[in-house]
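Quick board copy: two proteins, each given as sequence then tokens.
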Amino acid sequence: MITNNTLILIDGNSYLYRAFHAVPSFSNSQGMPTGAVYGMTNMLKSLLHDYQPTYTAIVFDAKGKTFRDELYPEYKANRPPMPDDLVAQISLTHEMVQALGFPLIMENGVEADDVIATLTKQAEAAGMHTLIFTGDKDFAQLVNDSVTLVDTLKNTRLDVQGVIDKFGVPPELILDYLNLMGDRVDNVPGVKKVGPKTAVKWLQTYGSLEAVVENAAQFKGKIGENLREALPLLPLTRQLLTLKCDVPLSHTPRQFKLNSPDVNKLRELYTELEFQKWLTEIPGGSFKKPKPKQYYTILSQADFEGWLNRLNEAPLFAFDTETSSLDYLEAEIVGVSFAVPAGEAAYVPLAHDYLGVPQQLSRDKVLAALKPLLENPDKLKVGQNLKYDAHVLANHGINLQGIAFDTMLESYVLDSTATRHDLDSLALKYLKLQTIKFEDIAGKGKKQLPFNQIDIEQAAPYAAEDADVSLQLHQKLWLQLQSIPKLCQILTEMEMPLIPILMRMERNGVKIDAVQLQKQSAELGQSLQVIEQQAYELAETEFNLNSPKQLQGILFDKLGLPVLKKTPKKEPSTAVEVLEELALDYPLPKLILEYRSLSKLKSTYTDALIQQINPKTGRVHTSYQQAVTATGRLSSVNPNLQNIPIRTAQGRRIRQAFVAPKGYRFLAADYSQIELRIMAHLSQDEKLLAAFAAGEDIHKATAAEVFDVPLNDVTSVQRRSAKAVNFGLIYGMQAFGLAKQLGIERRKAQTYIDTYFARYPGVKAYMDDTRELAKKQGYVETVFGRRLYIHDIKSRSHQRRQYAERTAINAPMQGSAADMIKMAMIKMDKWIVRSDVKMLLQVHDELVFEVAENVVEETKAAIIEAMSYVTELRVPLLVDVGVGDNWDEAH
């Protein structure tokens, strides 16, 4: 019987998945999936009618990892990712739940099951009865005289006797029962080949898992072997399966009361989701069918000219290209699409060439007609990742100008960590729209068709939708950005002007000496063979140096080296940090590390770079990604030219293969200690500011403070230690990490850190204030106002919260440095147009140029000025500039 003393808890995840699979194909007229929201709403409305709860709550899993992931990294590793159609409905479901009046709970660091278990125990202690609405068998461990499970889908209720009837054991043995079987769905290990029947049999015979374990030696045959083999893992399995009943919660069970429905919010949701029947039940609710999308395929000259006129008259239009390749230097246009008002778009097919393709307009003539419009800087365009489209147009002799907005960058500036910034993900997040996927029209894998082979009838809606969705996204994102003026400025004055600059850098590429790389690759191959032979001699047998399993056997079984760390599967670890520690005392681990290092150089750089030289240009052309890192830094891919190692001779030798053509020199400009200078600016620490203002060696100055010696008496060892402290603290290094890096005791490292903070109190205050600010507002900012969201700053997991705090301290410095290098690139690009200079590379705090010999000194002065005075900080900015015939010489 439901009374005012009953707490109803709903397993939101269980309900949501059931709703999704029960009503999988529902969508509104805009193509947004709605089945899970509909099914969930229907179930909750029934629950309200049947049970009329007073005290209730719906509990969902929060984003991110939980303590179980830290206990066992392979926890839930086999679970497939959540379907995109379901992902798109989660936030709407949360809104609907609350609009119906249900309190909603999500706690970081634990699962929804743990929150339900905690509330159940609290309710029991308060003398309340609890009904848990779920289909999850794990909750059976909570059942007692005051706790009942309800499965509305199967119309069952499990009390104590119900648990016994269903599982064969009472609630107090459910955990033992689950422990023996494990959980395949969540990848929790149990005893192999033990299913429900065997688990029940053993527990009925011995009375408990503890007794089964005590008698493990008596079990015969293969099942006995499996039991004994599983014994070391059973305690871990129990930890993973035990519901946590002590989650700190801000409210008690009696504070979770059913609220009155939010009629206005329900009307809004029912309208958006097009739940017509429910909408008519609400006072003032009436359904207006949204205007259908209008997508056109342009095959006639008259239709094209009509659209061309519309584009010329529009204050802003969306633009997209469909192409023959993802390689921006090779791609050719297959078709173009446009959108002017939201919901109306057109696709102009130009180079589809399958059998039976309809007559298309001439690509050359269409592009010639579009060229004045696309090259007009006063005709404003919006699109998604328009740098790629600009490349493709350049392949056809068109210089795209007037790029006003890029939806990828609008999303990235708004929140770099909110979602992936591809069009499909943005449509789901911001428009609640399920877009047509490329695989839907092109197929998958080896059978996937190139765009020119796709039927125009299928290609046209896909292409037109891309332009339409880009326009709709811009309208939504720009509205949000306008409420935060600093972010508008980041977008319009930093990210958007960078697009043509990065495009030119990518097209410039960098000249590679293939002969030198081939020679180095051959020498690396010989070195690897020598190391292999040396390793075989030490191991007294041949083995695969790249195989962790074989290396395990050699190091720990054959040679008997100490096991310093184990994998989650309880096997000896051969991870890098383990080998580094073993290498201090044993020769074979040292050889393995050297082998791995040289092997990576060979495969990643000396071999790969040769293959990536463009045969037409003789250069390597990387691609710069603007919307990937959380801090605003650019990243380089295909190939990645930002991670070439420079601390080893072999790494520097790779840079020597990046050469300037005849008559030119390499010029590399690098900010000196930029993040430390930003730290001084942000913290306003008096001693740091004074040291930089005086032009002192900051590491030497820090050593003088930390070791309390005169500046001139600082030794090289003391300076090295101070340098480790300076950079370590920026990245949130603790005493343990500093001690390991310097090879000193942890207590001594802590003394260094304490002394540093005592000498530089402003730095300590900045770090403390930044942590608190991040907790309060959920984000930190760069010097220029870029927001860097810190999602785990309030996590209940100590490890994740500590990492988030370190990120909060470092992100403003790293992000400000990224902003400054971008500003310097924009400033320098304006100067470059007057000279025989090309900007080639951007590597974190460094810019690399190809400069004609006769303008080297002039360019050097211009770069120093552009970078030194790009902004005004409380400390001077110092720029180191080098010149050489190759990148290594110039660095």
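And the next:
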Amino acid sequence: MKHLSLSMLLLLFSIFTGFGQSVKVIDETDLQPVADVFIFSSKISSLTDAKGWADLSKFGKNDTLFFQHPSYVYERTTLDAIMENGGIVRIKEDLIRVNEIVVSQNRWEQDKGEIPNKIEAIRSKDVNFYNPQTTADLLGLSDQVFIQKSQLGGGSPMIRGFSANRVLLSMDGVRLNNAIFRSGNLQNVIMLDPNIMDNSEVIFGPGSIIYGSDAIGGVMDFHTRQVKLSTTDDAYLRLNALTRFSTASLEKTGHLDFSYGKKNWGMLSSISFSDYNDLRMGDKGDDFYVLPVFVRVYPYQDSVMQNTNPNIQVGSAYSQVNMMQKFRFRPSKTLDLTYALHYSRSSDIPRYDRYLEIQDGIPKYAEWYYGPSQWLMHHLGAELKDTTPIFDRLRLTMAYQSYTESRHDRKLGQTQIRERKEYLDVTSINIDADKTISDTKELFYGLEWSTNRVLSSGIGRDVYSGELSQVSSRYPDGGTLYINSGTYAGLKSRLSDKIALSIGIRANYVNLNSLFVTKEFFDFPYDQIQISNTAFNGSAGVAWHPVQSLQFNMNFSSGFRAPNLDDVGKVFDSEPGNVIVPNEDLKPEYALNADLGVIKMFGDKAKVEITGFYTFLFDAMVRRDFTFNGESYIMYDGEYSKVEAIVNADQAIVYGFSAAINWHFINQLYLRSSFSASHGEESGGIPMRHAAPMFGATHLIYQTGKFRGDFFIRYNGTKTNEQMAPSELSKVYLYTSDENGDLYSPGWYTLNFNMAYQLKPFLQINLGVENILDKRYRPYSSGIAAPGRNFMITVRTSI
């Protein structure tokens, strides 16, 4: 009995001392472990691992411990208090974002307080709370990026009056813009899986120093979840799953990811699937948005049907699957290797805005859809951390991407459907390095090279007999080689405790070579188009803190966009009655930009940020009337069409401002609000197409314990007829009329609510309703009406 009592005492002592030597840090709301929390006292420090655990054995019993993480409120406690709480410390998310860290500025982590650019970060916790359907909707969570949709399976971001191939997409350091990114609204961002994003950042304004061509209006930089390694002998295991349902499109989404990590290697597997029915619009609003008829395609017959429920946008349904597989190997403390395979495939995606075109009282098209879009990327990354004479950190990023895209259209009553397909292979390499020169100076430099190979074909297929014939391809049918390269260098210098200076320069070289083989449809006066361009860009900015709570930012930068294949070699109807033809004389367009911003902190209770900008675009590539073999009109697909081309024929200015406030004003109650306004015009005062109306959102957030709720309003201003671009006014099927009978885009607002409750550490439920008032509206430039009242439920589990 004596020996048994002694054994129990020893066991209790070991349990107590075990708690005393370690702590687990978890999020107060979702109860999930928080990695990379810096724990320190006056002399000692520790860091939490992937499971939220940290060693406290070196701390004294009377020490005061501080818990610090960029995304959480600064916390302090004692070792005794930790023991009384069972070795658990709960930390609260910092909704004010006092000490924000960003990566996209120069591809390395930096304190936002030293960056002169406006950068907005979208954290994974925001994604988990709001549950965006697509990555385009994920960008919309910033409330400072305007999203246009031509169809349900779409989402074209507009940033500061620019869109499509004038803004740049990047994921895990890999350029996603390619040779066939078009100037019209572009939906490629939805091929990325929002459920696997760790964090995402938006750079506002030119980002050409780091990212090269296309980064005129801004950069959207996505970072997928990293493979976590174990810091103990036990393996790191993690399983995450979610299922989501929403009523407006009868959405059914499922996601599963699994992580496994040992000390020096690990893996992450992920799969997501989403299925959407035809989208239901709101019931209260302008009847113009209701389409009373649609086309049903039967064998050997097209039938125009009455829409028995006009709020249902028949022909908008689609589905999509995304997969990712990552492996990580860390052979030493200085070298980290990662391989990732990304795959995305959609179903046919109906081009819903084309179904709105009515001719002689009936729909113009029986079928108009994008064929299954497929994207595959192999990504190999290596990061070396070692102090050498030329770098402290060096990162190598190599990628191979394969795209398959197609467009299919057939007019009502015709038997032949045109099927135009593009096959694109992209290989790229990036080398990025940084070097600390002194306590106050840090150097960044690198190079980029990407090669695009494009094949384009056109086939006509009789939908009844199956007979095939050749039709004109979208791009030159002999193939295209497109090379995009550049090298850059940047310097960050802390001139004093209050001033940080950032400067950079980049040299670019872009080459395009396209071959025309078939001249059956168009008698091109040349056999190939070959264009070579060089460009130089620079930036200079200052972040000034006259006092700790106040920051002024001033930044001057330039950007450029070299003509790609879609600009130079496209033959495609831009709208009914017009056809774009190639232009071998096209040159790059350039932008000069100035930003002025101020950030004011009011303790840890409030943060106000205001930024103004002015961008001047010259040698702008715009669509203008043109001639083809001396003719202003040609026959194109059986229709006598006016000839147009992309030319360097214009200058443009875009200016505006954005304002945002985060305010923790009463206990667990937060206010977050943002507003953006921009004005863009080409020479002669002609409005720019992608300058969005003023827009913004205001959120009232209540967060306590395991509950978080958000009641918010989203709103858009009106685009009057005078503010509309001529190319938009020609789309009479998209816009309603004002009291004078002139086309315009009405303003709108919606009331919305979202909540999350952590039932168990492994189980969370999210409920939400958007467009509570069931308003019927269509966002500016969009081809599909927004969802009506939409109830959403998401169940998440993490084990």
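Board note added afterward: Residues 581 and 771 are 42 Å apart (CA to CA).
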